Task: inverse folding
């Protein structure tokens, strides 16, 4: 049998090697229009920044290594220009020589990936505008960066932030333009606020709620025209506003395209043609949580799909792809920011009923040196179904989000997080892990033992006459910063002042991160008072409103 794979990297190369492990006799050909069949595209920004010094370490496999170990026929710099489904042939063109040829297939696998979005702005073709998607792009940017000092990055996603970080670390002046209200769309605003503040600390200027209208190339610089009327000048622009699935080959072959714009595949990763399969960034998949069709261009799904599709192509359709959670993580200077599943923005868009809990806890035992705070937000339904989670911190963020991702895939309820037995020793953890605390907190919310209010709900809620904002931190903490209008009673003195409070009022309680606020909540409610807590406490509030702690509309 003759199998042709169009595109390498994560999905195509993984599938091809699995295909060979399953069968020694099949002829397997990989066509890759670029110069590299298998490279670590997630590592590209770190070579530009000099973190990865050896360029060759990014090249995971070569045509020679794949031939030697797997007996694969890899043809780089060769573009597949068309598919004739009726005759089961493809037309290919050598990128260097321009020569064309035709090849027959029994089964075809599409792994064309995605391409950077380049809007039709005036001036978009300027040679001073760069994108980063492959090794060739990386080489161009790395060479260019060496003799320039000022850059504008357009787009606040993973690539944009990683490039901006690496340029800042090289001592460059960088401004980042983002059309949305926040960077890093997979997380909600309050978690993204930690990234905003870190950017300011590091000298990265963020221009949020700001769009680009056009570019104008000048002799030594390029002008960037913004939608607020401002005109910026810089030496180079790096465009990182997202990617779109590369579907032109599939469309021209008459394959069905899904509602999201990705190639339509069934659960076995088979296209509308039974002889053609597809994987990776180019395909439409299901969101594992809500089963809605989405595009999730990440490395884990592509690798997983590569293995499954090989089994289906050789052994018949029996290995179904269950969908993607979109689990992801970003290193941003000292911070790690991670998420899995659905965020609050998505839950609102699809009109889910949900609850949220924000928990802050050390990465390991507080009495052991260098424990770092982790802030985690978990989202769940009234039935306990875990919808998603996000976390930010300097250490241990990946571990906690990975546990939540595993729990979601296992169908665990949010209350079940209490029962996850996690390894403990002071240098690594606390006896009650952050994930366990999330389970306890969620159970309290679902049982009605704890009512919470989010930072964005607090301001309008406080306009009511029967509401009192109660800060239960120490007087010393209170004096260093508080939310405007709050009354300060230390939680340890609350019982002594309990008779001074008014049972007709609703007390909105906050402490620094949440524990003392919860204890105060229980004291008040056990004495017959009405109480609720500010989700995330003062620590989150001052992060969302840095320098603006006053309660103003």
Result:
């Amino acid at each position: 049998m003759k199998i042709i794979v169009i595109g390498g990297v994560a999905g195509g190369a993984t599938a091809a090697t699995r295909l060979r492990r399953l069968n020694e006799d099949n002829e397997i050909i990989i066509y890759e229009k670029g110069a590299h069949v298998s490279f670590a595209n997630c590592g590209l920004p770190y070579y530009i920044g000099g973190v990865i010094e050896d360029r060759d370490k990014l090249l995971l496999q070569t045509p020679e290594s794949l031939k030697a170990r797997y007996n694969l026929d890899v043809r780089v710099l060769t573009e597949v220009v068309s598919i004739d489904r009726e005759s089961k042939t493809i037309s290919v063109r050598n990128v260097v020589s321009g020569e064309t040829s035709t090849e027959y297939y029994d089964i075809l696998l599409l792994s064309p990936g995605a391409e950077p979005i380049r809007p039709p702005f005036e001036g978009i073709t300027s040679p001073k505008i760069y994108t980063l998607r492959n090794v060739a792009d990386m080489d161009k940017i790395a060479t260019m960066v060496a003799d320039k000092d000022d850059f504008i990055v357009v787009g606040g996603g993973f690539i944009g932030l990683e490039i901006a970080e690496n340029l800042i670390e090289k001592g460059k002046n960088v401004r980042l333009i983002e059309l949305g209200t926040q960077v890093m769309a997979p997380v909600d605003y309050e978690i993204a606020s930690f990234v905003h503040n870190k950017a300011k600390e590091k000298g990265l200027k963020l221009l949020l709620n700001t769009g680009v209208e056009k570019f104008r190339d000048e002799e030594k610089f390029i002008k960037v025209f913004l939608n607020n009327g401002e005109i910026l000048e810089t030496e180079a622009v790096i465009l990182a506003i997202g990617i779109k699935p590369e579907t032109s080959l599939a469309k021209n072959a008459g394959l069905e395209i899904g509602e999201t714009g990705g190639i339509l595949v069934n659960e076995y990763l088979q296209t509308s043609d039974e002889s053609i399969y597809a994987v990776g960034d180019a395909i439409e998949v299901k969101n594992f949580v809500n089963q809605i069709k989405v595009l999730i261009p990440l490395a884990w799904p592509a690798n997983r799909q590569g293995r499954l599709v090989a089994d289906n192509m050789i052994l018949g359709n029996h290995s179904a792809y269950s969908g993607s959670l979109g689990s992801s993580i970003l290193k941003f200077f000292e911070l790690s920011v991670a998420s899995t599943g659905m965020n609050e923005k998505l839950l609102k868009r699809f009109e889910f009923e949900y609850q949220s809990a924000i928990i802050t806890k050390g990465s390991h035992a507080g009495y052991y040196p260098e424990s770092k705070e982790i802030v985690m937000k978990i989202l769940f339904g009234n039935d306990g179904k875990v919808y998603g989670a996000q976390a930010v911190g300097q250490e241990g963020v990946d571990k906690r989000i990975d546990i939540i991702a595993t729990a979601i895939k296992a169908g665990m309820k949010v209350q079940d997080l209490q029962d996850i037995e996690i390894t403990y020793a002071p240098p690594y953890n606390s006896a009650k892990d952050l994930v366990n605390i999330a389970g306890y907190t969620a159970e309290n919310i679902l049982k009605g033992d704890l009512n919470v209010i989010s930072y964005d709900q607090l301001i309008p809620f406080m306009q009511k006459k029967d509401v009192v904002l109660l800060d239960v931190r120490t007087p010393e903490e209170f004096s260093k910063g508080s939310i405007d209008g709050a009354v300060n009673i230390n939680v340890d003195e609350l019982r002594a002042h309990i008779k001074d409070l008014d049972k007709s009022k609703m007390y909105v309680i906050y402490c620094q991160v949440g524990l003392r606020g919860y204890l105060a909540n229980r004291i008040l409610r056990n004495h017959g008072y009405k109480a609720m807590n500010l989700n995330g406490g003062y620590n989150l509030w001052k992060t969302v409103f840095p320098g603006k702690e006053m309660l103003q509309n």
Notes: The first strand starts at residue 2 and ends at 6.
